[in-house]
Amino acid sequence: MDLGVYVHVPFCERICPYCDFAVVRAPQLAREREDAFVAALLSECERRLPLFGATRLASLYLGGGTPSRLRADSVARVIERVRRAVPASDAALEVTLEVNPSTTERARLPAFREAGVNRLSIGLQSLDDATLKRLGRAHRAAEGRATFAAARSAGFDDVSVDLLFAAPGQSLAALDADLAAFAALAPQHVSAYALTLEAGTPFERAAHSGRLALPGDDEVAEMLERVALRLGAAGFARYEVSSFARPGFESRHNRRYWERRPVLGIGPGAWSSEPPRADAPFGARRANERDLDAWLARVAAGGEGASGPPEVLDEATARGEASFLALRTAAGLDARRFAAEFGAPPRAFYADAIDELVAAGLLDEGCGGSLRLTPRGFLLSDTVFARFV
Amino acid sequence: MSAPSGSAGSGSGPGTASHIRNFCIIAHVDHGKSTLADRLLDVTKALSSREKRAQFLDKMDLERERGITIKAQTARIYHRARDGKDYVLNLIDTPGHVDFSYEVSRALSACEGAVLVVDAAQGIEAQTLANTYLAVDADLELVPVLNKIDLPSAEPERVAREIEDILGLPASDVLHVSAKTGQGIEELIERIVERVPPPSGDPDAPLRALIFDSWFDPYVGVVLLVRVVDGRLAMKERIKLMARGSEHEVTDLDLIDPHPRSVGALEMGEVGIVIAGIKTLDDVRIGDTITLAQRPAPEPLPGFREVKPMVFAGLYPVDADEYGALKAALEKLRLNDASFRYEPETSAALGFGFRCGFLGFLHAEIIQERLEREYSLNLISTTPTVRYQVVQNTGETIEIDSPADLPDATRIERIEEPLILATIHVPADYLGAVLSLCQERRGVQRDMSVHGNRIQVRYLLPLAEVVADFHDRIKSATRGYGSFDYELAGYQPGDLVKLDVLVNGQPVDALSLIVHRDKAFQRGSDLVRKLKEFIPRQMYEVAIQAAVGSRVIARSTVKALRKNVTAKCYGGDISRKRKLLEKQKEGKKRMKRVGQVEIPQEAFLAALRLDTE
Questions:
Q1: By CA distance, what is A162's nearest residue in B?
Q2: Class of domain A2-256
Q3: B563 with A321: Cβ contact below 8 A
Q4: Domain ranges in chain A?
Q5: CATH 1.10.260 fits A315-386, yes or no
Q6: Which residues of B fall within a CB distance of 8 Å from A320?
Q7: B→A interface, C-beta within 8 Å
Q8: CA spacing 20 to 30 A to B28: which of A11, A105, A111, B333?
Q9: What is the model's pTM?
Q10: Would you say residue B9 has pLDDT above 70?
């Protein structure tokens, strides 16, 4: 059984007003604090890795927060520890690091590469200063470009960038400009997200009281179409709702989630997808303590970082998840693979939904019963998915 | 003064009723009818308590076992009058509100006299008048009384003059009482003895007893409250209900003393309880005549009629799971209210529910309120409708009480709608508001009269125009000072059309209406606007139309949903996203489907509550 490992690093220079991840504001990350944190990561890793019984490491993903705020030697220790525990072939292993476009981190890029990182995910979000400002981001377009260039200089040939759109006050024209600028950078991968208002964030509160001039639904729909169109034209294939890549550069780690493969999550707020076991034949999911100090305390006490019992998936829930997660991808829901796990092809469980969604032009049903979203289905994907849960 | 403690309590024995006075109290709501009744009963209870206590207490348990409950404030009052003779006064309760005018009329016809109560501060109101007319129709001797004479705001002289002016009863005849303090109560009882004639039936004629009230008792079944008009009714006799044609054996006869007290017989002129093993209220009709199976009367008592529901509405549970609870609640309510009807009805839009028939709109309101309050049900009601008479091209007339039953317009010669004659009393300041409300409701003024600062105006109005909110509107237009009463006033042809609401061409059955043509456009536009507000964007564009026949009179469009996307979905997000999707799915489940269109319950609620906006 292969395994992906996700490492959550919660520290951020500042907290973005739309973010609801497990994050900790830490303008300066003191050496002792960082060392204690990394020690805890390693300790949790030690304790939990064996439980997964993995025989091969497929991916390692350092996300956050801002994992690039860690020193390169810290990142190296994490990578080294995980690799020592689970065998991996250098060629097949994807090691991704999320990078924030700031000066400090830019300087560390060669050392990160040295540490074993072979894929970067840069939080560009936009290459338009006005948009960045309205998003409450600390960096500006020039820093984004500089970081991207530094990544290339450091020898990274697999670079993903984040594109955030439907920002307050953003026009379709501004998005067009952003898309052109992103395409010109020529990354290998783009993760394109429409801004989502998450409960409890400053943006949500502002929007609620009418202080945030967000584009309307129809405008966002046009933006979504524009993103798919422009990125497609620039040679990026949409392989998932929000993910675009040049052929061969799809994120192997993220794929694991949509294919429901095991992932060990370590660090505060990280989630694990545990492989099927006798008492959980469809797998289980488990969340780590979200609060940094609480997580540290748990790990220090020799316990697991996870708080509460695992969410054991029953067959019907697993079937629903298998459907909507696979449908997120361009490859879609493979009827044979589905039948192998659940005993019958999707139509056996979702005939009415499939017929209606096909009639409405949101879903394509291939021969053999495999299912795929249509272009309009990608715009209304939640409407489709709601019929499968 | 002492209460007779003798055998049957009928005083002078069979054959004579000269000691009996049967009377009721009539009043506008809140003028103190119940308090006065309580006070009258208190007087008699106080007088008899010492003598009766032992006997009474002995009987308590027995009564509990027997379990007859007295629903109404009907009871006997014993009184030794100034003339030195002992009298029995039967106070007969009347139903309290306007939709029950037939029941009121039956209760009145069980009496020879009526105490007319007028609030000494408020003066004559709409129901005072309506009830007085009913009493006059029933040939009752009126005993006018000013109540609440103790209030600082009482104006006995003014109100007495009003009574003389409007009702033609001499002001000098009007008694001053306070049900609250007891002032004038003795005088009132004397006056009843003096003025109200004794029963004048034929004690030797075949039995004729009027059923003027009935209720269901879980222990003994149906309890009949009767007035023996002619003849005599004894235990074990076999009785026949003349209108129903059914026969039963009398198992119990009681006087209400004020608790049920078994007697061997009810004599001519008496008021009492008959229990005869009748299972459901449906087997009994108010106003029916009881006679003896062996020696039937040739003619029943006059005035009987079948009461028909006049107002109809579909009642649906907001939560489909409450259908069973609603059914059970309706069954229970109907046990005690045979005038209310229901039958199962299915609506494509609202699911499973019941088509209910009510005597009037207040009755409808009361039933709905009881269902919601006493049975904790959350209900959605279709727009109340009335019973129309539809004359078809073939000459055949059909009655319909649901827009769904209206034949195609091409087959209709004309539609006739029920009218009411509304009597409205209002302080002069609010007259304008009332007149424009009546006008707006297609009313035709019949007459208007001025009494000091108060004005009485009578309007002929289509019943359909008052079923929804007329009463509330009168109250708010007059800040509560206006009062309203009505009687049914026959049928009249109207330019009526069926208004349908369609979503993507499919009619939404729950929103169909029969309306006057002049109002169809406004109503249609309002409905369309409301629905657009509440129907969420969905996979397809949704066209909302209001149509009369094939002619669309209002339209609007809910544009197709263009995006519904969750951007990221990794790791732990999966559980969260799945839960959001499940929530979305649950939300859809609660929506009603009309064709391909999903309509949230709130849309129906909003559309059906347009009236009360």
A1: B568
A2: alpha beta
A3: no
A4: 2-256, 315-386
A5: no
A6: 578
A7: 537-540, 559, 561-575, 577-578, 580-582, 584-585, 588
A8: B333
A9: 0.72
A10: no
